[in-house]
Specification:
Helix content is 43%, strand content 13%. By secondary structure, the protein is of the alpha/beta class. The chain has a single domain, classed as Rossmann fold (3-Layer(aba) Sandwich), CATH 3.40.50. It has a seven-stranded mixed beta sheet, with helices on both faces. Bound molecules: adenosine-5'-triphosphate and magnesium ion. The site of adenosine-5'-triphosphate has 18 residues, from helix 1 and helix 9. The site of magnesium ion has 4 residues, from helix 1.
Length: 265
């Protein structure tokens, strides 16, 4: 089991769209996925049409009041499970801040998931602010997946998140955490700008950047208003194809290097 934080302090870069649709595409490939909505805006929750479960959030588990397992809900997709969010989760920031070990609350809350093998991947949809919830996500994650939008200043935003991840690592809260992948989103093939930005980011971050690029499509932006993943809303369109390709590449990248390959040099 691996915990992946989908994080970028910049807003509107495609974190939630990626958390929901990568989660769905991985579930379609027989991976058991737990998606945790860590954003009080609850966009991942409503993208799955599950906003009616009020109070079913990570709020109580984070404060040690309820077991995390009690908050895991099934979704329409067989292998995809969700812990929803709602606005009240914002209050957890304040309360967690007063607790000892406040950076490690989420890591501790998710600890039982590491002991059993119910899930292959836990995806954390992070809020855009650099608050307690996002810091907790970075401290709990094995790896960070950072979506960035193909636009001017993409690199500047990336430099910031890299620095934040370094701070979490240096603080000792999560000594091994790193950005495992960078995903270019909202690629617009009609402009040169998108291609230039992708080239520039690849030049700086090399293999960290996913080969798969997510195109800008109206369908991807419409799907959440119907409470549907792109795999349900437009199952053979460009958006669904991109997120399926991303899921394949994601799984490939998780595969450990075979021992024989390691011992060659
Ligand atoms: N590939 C895409 N093509 C078209 N629209 C997209 C695409 N990806 C995301 N969007 C739209 O862009 C907006 C921002 O995307 P999303 O909510 O995924 O970003 P976010 O990083 O989670 O934002 P926040 O920081 O507010 O949580 C949404 O309206 C979403 O539907
Ligand atoms: Mg979001």
């Amino acid at each position: 089991m691996k915990i992946i934080a989908i994080a970028n302090q910049k807003g509107g870069v495609g974190k939630t769209t990626t958390a929901v649709n990568l989660g769905a595409a991985l579930a379609e490939k027989e991976q058991r996925i737990l998606l945790i909505d860590l954003d009080p805006q609850a966009n991942a929750t409503s993208s799955l049409g599950m906003q009616e479960f009020e109070g079913e959030t990570l709020y109580e588990p984070l404060l040690g009041q309820t077991a995390m397992a009690a908050k895991i809900l099934p979704t329409r997709l067989e292998q995809l499970f969700l812990i929803p969010a709602d606005l009240d989760l914002a209050g957890a920031e304040v309360e967690i801040a007063r607790m000892p070990d406040h950076l490690l609350r989420l890591a501790q809350t998710l600890q039982p998931l590491r002991a059993d093998s119910a899930f292959d991947f836990v995806l954390l949809d992070c809020p855009p602010s650099l608050g307690i919830l996002m810091s907790n996500a970075l401290a709990a994650a094995d790896e960070i997946l950072t979506p960035i939008q193909c636009e001017y200043f993409a690199l500047e935003g990336l430099v910031k998140i890299v620095r934040v991840v370094e701070q979490v690592r240096d603080s000792g809260a999560n000594p091994n955490v790193q950005i495992g992948g960078i995903l270019m989103t909202m690629f617009d093939s009609r402009t040169n700008l998108s291609s230039q930005v992708v080239a520039e980011v690849r030049q700086h971050f090399g293999d960290k950047v996913y080969t798969t690029v997510i195109p800008r499509t109206v369908r991807l932006s419409e799907a959440p208003s119907f409470g549907k993943t792109i795999l349900e809303y437009d199952k053979s369109g460009a958006g669904a194809r991109a997120y399926r390709a991303l899921a394949e590449e994601f799984i490939r990248r998780q595969a450990p290097v075979p021992a024989s390959a390691e011992s060659i040099s």
